[in-house]
């Protein structure tokens, strides 16, 4: 089913009408997204990635995002299971599945979509232990401009995930080395007891520095469903 909206976007791109936000709407996120989600606040100055944001309330899920020297706070705007959308005041939108960044919008280089062949090894941290996991994913990337010649779909990445020696007694460092359409290393810092990732450095496109994601306030865990005996 993903191939149909992707083909539709390619046809729109040929007419110069497609943006990274369009790809995020059509390919990554199944719930309709308003155009205002990607717009900067009126206080934003042109060309500024983000203005300083107020600290989120303790009950408001939020991420601190850093891209090179640019920083912003993104708050949760939509959620469906482990798939979540986060937005900064400047209109940068990040889609995550668990701790993984799977798409972005509002940057000059857009990670349009991520598809795994099988399960994402990062979601299997409790099973990782001292071993090593391999996984393959396919990504779509594009410039924020509408030039179809700068859209690249179906880029294959072969990755190796392994737990590195812990930097602290209660912290697990997981490194992911990827090769193929791009070469990079992602890093994830997780609580050694719960395996919850609280900080990461992730590739979001060639020519961009790693996106640093720090959890300021985590979303509430889904309520456990209890089945009563009949």
TrEMBL record:
Q: Which InterPro entries match?
A: GfcB (IPR021308), YmcC_sf (IPR023373)
- Keywords, A to Z? Lipoprotein
User: Which PROSITE patterns would you find in this protein's record?
Assistant: PROKAR_LIPOPROTEIN
Note the SUPFAM superfamilies from the entry: YmcC-like (SSF159270)
Origin: domain of life: Bacteria
Recorded hits in Pfam families, A to Z, give:
YjbF
Provide the protein name: YjbF family lipoprotein
**Species, as recorded:** Neoroseomonas soli
């Amino acid at each position: 089913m993903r191939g149909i909206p992707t083909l539709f976007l390619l046809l729109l791109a040929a007419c110069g009408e497609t943006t990274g936000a369009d790809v995020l709407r059509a390919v990554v996120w199944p719930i309709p997204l308003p155009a205002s989600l990607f717009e900067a606040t009126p206080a934003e100055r042109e060309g500024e990635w983000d203005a300083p944001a107020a600290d989120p309330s303790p009950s408001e899920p939020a991420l601190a995002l850093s891209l090179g020297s640019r920083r912003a706070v993104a708050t949760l705007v939509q959620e469906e299971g482990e798939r979540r959308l986060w937005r900064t005041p400047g209109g940068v939108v990040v889609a995550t599945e668990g701790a993984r960044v799977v798409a972005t919008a509002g940057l000059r280089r857009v990670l349009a979509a991520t598809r795994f062949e099988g399960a994402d090894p990062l979601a299997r941290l409790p099973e990782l232990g001292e071993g090593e996991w391999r996984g393959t994913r396919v990504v779509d990337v594009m410039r924020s401009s509408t030039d179809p010649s700068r859209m690249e779909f179906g880029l294959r990445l072969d990755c190796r995930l392994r737990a590195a020696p812990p930097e602290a007694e209660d912290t697990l460092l997981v490194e992911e080395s990827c090769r193929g359409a791009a070469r990079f290393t992602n890093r994830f810092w997780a609580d050694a007891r719960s395996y919850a990732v609280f900080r990461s450095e992730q590739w979001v496109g060639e020519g961009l520095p790693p996106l640093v994601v720090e959890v300021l306030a985590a979303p509430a865990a889904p309520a456990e469903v209890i089945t009563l005996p009949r």
